[in-house]
Write a structure and sequence with these properties.
Blueprint: E1 3-5, E2 12-13, E3 27-29, E4 34-35, E5 51-53, E6 60-61, E7 75-77, E8 82-83, E9 99-102, E10 123-127, E11 147-151
Parallel strand pairs: 1-3, 2-4, 3-5, 5-7, 6-8, 7-9, 9-10, 10-11
């Protein structure tokens, strides 16, 4: 199986750890459900995964450290869940990401500086971080951005002086 889409249903309960055995998954969608509990760490076995959509899926807890293995990930939509802890530093190593959405969760700040490695991003949305203070320094080389939403993150400091170089930026 390469595509698993369970989105927009009334599914509930915890996601089974056995999902990790489906190692050929390319796209995974569980958004718009009523799941509970953490993401199974076995999902980090999906080395071919390029897209994960889990907006409003009901999952909670920390993002498993095994997600550091998802080096082919291009789109990560993970908004409106109950993710906790900090946004993992390893997200900055997922260099193929073009879309990253972490809005409306319960993450703690600050925004990891390692996100500065994500120079292929065209859509970056992070909001509602609890505690911590961040600067905008991490976006310095993200000149491919067309959408940038950083709402309610206790950002301080100045707007980067190179903001005029973001020629594709249409939503700020």
């Amino acid at each position: 199986m390469q595509y698993l889409s369970l989105g927009i249903n009334a599914l509930s309960g915890e996601l089974p750890e056995e999902l990790g055995f489906l190692t050929e998954i390319i796209s995974f969608a569980i958004g718009g459900n009523n799941f509970s509990g953490p993401l199974p760490s076995g999902l980090g076995n999906w080395k071919r995964l390029t897209q994960i959509y889990m907006d409003a899926s009901g999952v909670s807890g920390a993002i498993p450290p095994t997600f550091a293995n998802l080096l082919n990930l291009e789109a990560l939509w993970a908004s409106n869940n109950e993710f906790t802890g900090r946004i993992p530093d390893f997200i900055g190593n997922l260099s193929k990401l073009t879309i990253l959405k972490f809005e409306g969760n319960s993450f703690q700040g600050p925004i990891p500086s390692t996100l500065s490695n994500l120079t292929s991003l065209v859509d970056l949305r992070i909001s509602d971080l609890l505690n911590g203070s961040s600067s905008l320094d991490f976006i310095w080389n993200m000149k491919n951005l067309s959408k940038l939403v950083l709402r309610n993150n206790n950002i301080s400091g100045s707007i980067p002086s190179n903001i005029g170089e973001y020629q594709s930026l249409s939503l700020l």
